Amino acid sequence: MKTSGIYIFSLFSFIMGVTACSDNDEVDCRGAIQTIQTQLQESDLLKSSAVEGDNYVLSFETKTVELPANTVQSLTTNPDEWKSILTFIDGSSYTIPSVGTSIDKLVTNVIVNPSGYNPLSAYAVMNLPALGRMKMIVHSKDGHRTPDIEYFFKSIEKGQTVTILGLYPDYKNKVTLVYTDKDGKERARSTIHIQTEKLKNPNLPKKTNVVTADISRMEPGMNLISSPGESEADTAIPYMIDADGEIRWTLDWVNHPELNHIDIGCGLSRMKSGNYLHGDGYRDKLVEVNTLGEIVKSWDLRAMGYSFHHDVAENADGKLLATVSNISAKLANGKDIRYNDYMIELDPVKSQITQVWDLAAMIDSSRYQLTDPSLPGAAFGQTQSNWAHNNALIGIGNDYLATIRFQGVCKFNHAGGVKWIISPHQGWRDKYQNLLLKPLHADGSPITDPDVIAGVKSGDDFDWPWGAHTAVPLPNGNVMVFDNGYGRNFVLARFDDQSLYSRAVEYEVNEEQRTVRQVWQFGKEGGHKYYAPARSGVQYLPQTGNRLFCPGMENNLSDGSTGGRVVEIDPATGQVIFELEISYAVYQRARRITLYPDNL
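^ Arylsulfotransferase N-terminal domain-containing protein, sequence as received from the core. Prediction below:
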């Protein structure tokens, strides 16, 4: 919310305007005037007045002020204008901010899409009579299950610009604005209507279908989807979908001078500031934007010797963690480039890289070409140059979790020392064997089948992650991973092979015993309808404990088309409590987040 001082109260004019006190009443009158001034300084509005004996009683929101009745000629209240005119017996007068009945006239302007990049947003410019807070409610359509969007802004300024998010496209939106005192007690409210235009970006989904939605059990918030567009030269577009399948927020950068070709990678992640962080694979930058899509700050990776690949997020210490490529890195032959195998930590304040992790110095870079490149789907496969394919990096305490598509999931410390790797054991050289976790059965006994350990077949109660994306640390200390199932058991197949599946899987890691046990999974039973050979992600939902399973491409949808899904699961029961189908769409990541950050 933006603030500006647009209502100025002049104590000097109040004192100079009151000249009607008689000699006998001068002390009492001046004391009353000072009390009124104090109440107005505290942003107390006048509620009512009455003559009680020799006193003229002014009742403010929190206190009462008494004036000598013989000094006051009249008090005229105008509730529409939120003011009262106090006139003294000599004809002088003063305006006192007063409680009104409607805030219609306090709304001086409404601007739809104020930034030009968020067509489902608006500004409501407020001119308030006293310090106070604003609350905004965007009402859901009749018959829709999505709750009204409500947000209580923190600003208490008289001049406020209320940022309205979550408008429906091509619709006359009903929005309620609530004006409160500084403590949140309501003073008045009004309803305005905001007409929006139809969304025009061709990369938005052609169709959505909500298969199921149990609102009472769902994690609150919207589903943030990040579409990469048709190519790297196209414009990526993030958008949010509600529980009814309606798009309620989007950033359209087609006409942005710097982001018009943005390749967004894994999409937006919210920062502690409330802004969003994303990478631009087209210009090789990290970019911070606000909720309206305006650039706040950017960092030029190319100038630092790196190109962006897929993922960036803010760590708990405020540093930025990004998966990248070193522009000058070469294979061991010294000729061919290698890429998607570096990670960096960047200080956003100093715009300096503070740590670099080279996966080739941490894990086995010779472990490649373990699948037949002539098989269908090889375009998504591993090569010598793209031997690792880093796609996610997240802090976990003082350590880090990296998801490496062709090598598994890796935990390492700040110095780059690898603590463990969850990966099929086949193909790893002897020097890395001590880093590989040993698989356990569900009952905790060791798996002894060499084929399961190697990864050439799946166990009944254990399987490794294949082509994985997005490792997420859980509150219980376990790790959840999106197992794409790409190249499962080192076998590539056509994407339409109905035996293929993807899953969300939870692993329990015992670092002392060097073991890994599969304790939960979802998706295998759903078969090919949840299969996504690439992209995709999982998320832990903290309020409910539910999990979000997001296969982002090539899903078989119920209308016969292909696309992506967002699935929310209760892990205790395995029940799907929300499922959204997005037809003809591809996305890198989906996340459940609140529409508003906590700090506007």
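Confidence is low (pLDDT under 50) at residues 3-28.
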